[in-house]
Amino acid sequence: MRLIILFSSLLWAAPLLAHDLQYSSDNAQATVLTLFYTDQKAFSYEQYELYRPGQNIPAQVGRTDDQGRLVFLPDQAGEWRVKVFSEDGHGLDTKIQVTAPGQAAPVTQPLFGRYPRLIVGIALIFGLFGLVSLFVRKKSGGSHELGGQGN
Amino acid sequence: MWIKLGMSAALSLATLTSHAHELWLERDGQTRVLYYGHHSGAHEGAKRLPYPPQQVQQSHCLDRNNQALPVQPSPSYPVRIAADCALTTVRLSSGYWSKTPYGTQNLPKDQVQMAVQSWLSYESVKRLDAWHSGFTQAVTEGELELLPLDNPLTVALDDKLRLRLVFQGQPVTGAVVTYAGKPRGTTDAAGEINIRLKQPGLQQLETSHRLPGDGIKADEIVHTTSLVFELRSAP
User: Fold this and answer.
1) Does the model's ipTM exceed the 0.85 cut?
2) Is the pTM of this model over 0.80?
3) Domain positions in chain B
4) Is residue A10 assigned to a domain?
5) Is the sign of the CA dihedral A80, A114, A36, A110 positive or negative?
6) To the nearest whole angstrom, how far is the Cα of A53 from the nearest Cα of chain B?
7) Which range has the worst mean pLDDT, A127-141, B182-196, B201-215?
């Protein structure tokens, strides 16, 4: 009986082991796109799609954070396309020119003039994507095997 | 290793486009038709989106003598006002909205989990097809209205139109007014603003006014209104 219980529990454990995730943490420079309305309210928790130059499948999808920010790590030069949209009908479809390596290029936009209702404030292009941990890699020792038989 | 590439990025302003859903009224002979979607700045043409016709709460129709005509909005999409109005207004409400980390739902705050922001939305649109000096006064009671202080139908392209924003008969100050979907300025202490008309065809001016909500179903009540008219001819 004890053998049956043990074998049964191992069967249940197997999928957990097979889907075990590992992770690493690193520092990186990122592009930070901050979106807000004309009344300065953040375009928070809204959906976005980010496309590499010339691509139709988004490289990144998700939601802006609680400050209305979209953070990404461009890995190639060219025009990156960003589409953001809310359920109540606001949105933006724009392109961000990723150019040469190096310098930060903060861009701000005036409220009035040629710019749209939903202002894209690039409060900081080239934000720091965390100064958390230098390089932490954690591995759990998961196995893809069922494990041994008990007695 | 991408980090070593250290790509920099800059916003390409020239390609910047944006949208917000708008309400507008089109003229179809003796009828005015209510549409919702993207009109301003839609170079590829207006994009109409369906809306529930039962959201329409109120409409007004004034003739060229500033006299009210009885009208009944049609019950089906798109809502039609079957009268040759000089001034037409329609008010609707899309109801309560609540923003959560997982999206915005068309529900009151007390019916969603993790609401971080909530509002009750009222939208209205006013279309002018002819002018009467009485149209400088508010048509509705207690609603947000953009009042043209001059006849907008005779304003030439690239000339300015003066407007007053009122809510419950009082001027609204500091409200951002958009023209063709783009912010053009804020109303002054008298609730007034000058807007230069830059595009031929259908003109659309829009603004919003936020008030505190009850805190239970909504944190805010958002009134949005549009003024729509057509420039008759280019200079």
Assistant:
1) no
2) no
3) 20-230
4) no
5) positive
6) 13
7) A127-141
